[in-house]
Amino acid sequence: MNFVDRTIRLRVRLFGVFSASWDGGTELRIRSVKQRAILAMLITAPEGARTRAWLQDKLWNRSGHEHGRASLRRALTDLRNVFGEHFGELFEVSNTDIQINLQYVERIDSPFDGEFLEGVDIGEEGFEEWIREERLKQSAMSSGISQAAQVKPRQIEELKIPGFEHTQPTLAILPFSTARGYDGTGQLGDMIAEEVSRSLSRSYLIDVISHLSCRTLDARQVAMNDIRAALDADYLVCGNYRADGDKIRLHADFIDTRTGRIAWTRELEGSQSAFLQGDEAVIRDLATEVGYAVSETAVSLAENHPVPDVETHTLLMSGITLMHRQSVAGFARAKNYLEEVIRRVPANSFVHAWMAKWYVLSVVQGWSRDLNQDAQIATDLTAKALDLNSECSISLAIDGFVHNNLLKRFDIAMERYSDAIEVDPNNALAWLLKGTFHAF
Strand (E) positions, 63-184? Predict the structure, then answer.
């Protein structure tokens, strides 16, 4: 497109279903609702300009100042990719302000097309207030009524954010008691339970109950029903230990609290002096075994019960586990499980991101029947995930995975991996993907 000899550059529809295209008919694919909101906010602003601080307050207030600034920067990067070489002619961006050149913009909408920014729902109080006022103003202008007569102060309804169903299994680690016949104080068992809880709490897939809530319960003296009532845990790890010189011998049981059944029991050994000096080999081994048990138990439950009867966290864990196995049948079941989780909790960023990863794996493993369609679905899913929560570290990492493997935008992929690690330095997936990126 040549801007020099054209007077209309961008055609935008803000009433009804949002659309943006060059006046030659080429559609611009702006999937993110926050990117659509930025365009609408600039187009409806006096002289097409808004401050960065104002946009951050309206779209990312809950994220805090630093994360809000980073999120706005990412959104502008994505818009720059959408508009390509013409971004600089259409937008003026400074450290304080963002402006769209209104002489290059044509509104092709009408109030008869539908509601202003129909379907653009963002869970930020500032945005909700702005869009209510804007809809009133747009309605007043279309009816020929002065803004002063039409727009009156309104009490902003309490912001209602969709509730999140239980998407992670809840795990409690009770202090390890001393084995029968052992005269130890029990302090070492409490320390081991604390470190295992701390290690597992770094996982996005398991919700670990704090050690302070667990340390007063003794599995030998409290009934299972009472433990479940007190902690509301799906799974429980308990057991005992014995120290023989410098050697620690740990016996651990993994229990499904719904049935009281022991799913597995393990015996591990480690060095007491090494543990006290910070060597966490025995902690790492036990945490690995527990994580594996949670995923295997979830897969078993999902495969042996009708999907509607399976808990959401079990379906999610099963979907994530099965998609990473080299089985076409398991991979297909993973998609069904993840789709059901999204149906139940559509406002959860995390589940949209994992569904996007399923589509990436479908393409790179050669199981996709339509590479372009699956690539577009994956892109849309991560855009949706980041619209729901721009600071979700897993969503950022998987969006980088999409840009790296499907879109071949390596610059954006690296930016997403770095942002994911900045948000959560404990995100092992982001570190893995970033390391793989460097390796290739």
Answer: 91-93, 97-100, 105-107, 170-173, 177-178
